Amino acid sequence: MPVNLHPAPADQLQPVPGLRIGTAMAGIRKANRRDLVLFELAEGSAVAGVFTKNRFCAAPVQVCREHLAAGSGIRALVVNTGNANAGTGADGLVRARRSCDAVAALLGIEASAVLPFSTGVIMERCRSKRIESRPPAAQADLAESHWAGSGAGHHDH
How far is it between the farthest Cα atoms of the chain? Predict the structure, then answer.
């Protein structure tokens, strides 16, 4: 997070046509925390990525590179906090791909159209079952206006 940068007031954040955001509590590291976010992008959206040049990169970075290189069009981003899924080897790749599979099945798209992102503790196995089970709650929360205060007034299912 940038130092001394204060977030813009919620009423100044405008919706972006073709983009909806929803959050859910997945209990990845802490309970009662909105630690999973789903971004749904309209068909035809343009997406690009900038990646580390370091040979050591987390599983979600590797999967994002693969999915962008496939060129099939990105329709969703799934982001979790609490666990970076970094330094987890082949197991981490499987878990990152399973989060894409879960979102793809929910939205009726190809898994290669989903980009996974993770932030948090490194070198610890990711609780992927929690990530895989919560996209329906995030989907129920989807709205264009959820840049700040996402989930306000909503309850997790």
Answer: 43
CB-based burial of residue 40 (10 Å sphere; 0-12 exposed, 13-18 middle, 19+ buried)?
buried
Give the chain's length. Answer: 157
In whole angstroms, give the CA distance from residue 8 to residue 144.
17
Listing DSSP states for 70-103 in one string gives: HTS---EEEEEEEE---S-HHHHHHHHHHHHHHH
Domains and CATH numbers, the chain: 14-140 (3.60.70.12)
Could you list the pLDDT tens digit for every one of the 157 residues in the chain? Answer: 567 888 788 788 888 899 999 999 999 989 999 999 999 999 999 999 999 888 889 999 999 999 999 988 999 999 999 999 999 999 999 999 999 999 999 999 999 999 999 999 999 887 777 788 888 999 999 988 887 655 544 444 4
Angstrom distance (rounded) from CA 122 to CA 82: 9
Q: Is 61 exposed, middle or buried (0-12, 13-18, 19+ CB in 10 A)?
A: buried
pTM to 2 decimals? 0.88
